[in-house]
Amino acid sequence: GSSKGSKGLDRIYPERYFSVPTSEVYLRSLAINHQPFPLPASVNNLQKLSLRYNQNTINIETGIIDFYTRGKSTLRYKLVQEGRDEPWQYGTAYGTIRYDGLVPGKYKLVTQSSNVDGEFNSPDKILLIVISTPFWQTAWFRILTPVTLLLLFYGIYRLRTAALRKQKRVLE
Question: Looking at per-residue confidence, does 34 or 69 come out higher?
Answer without folding.
Answer: 34
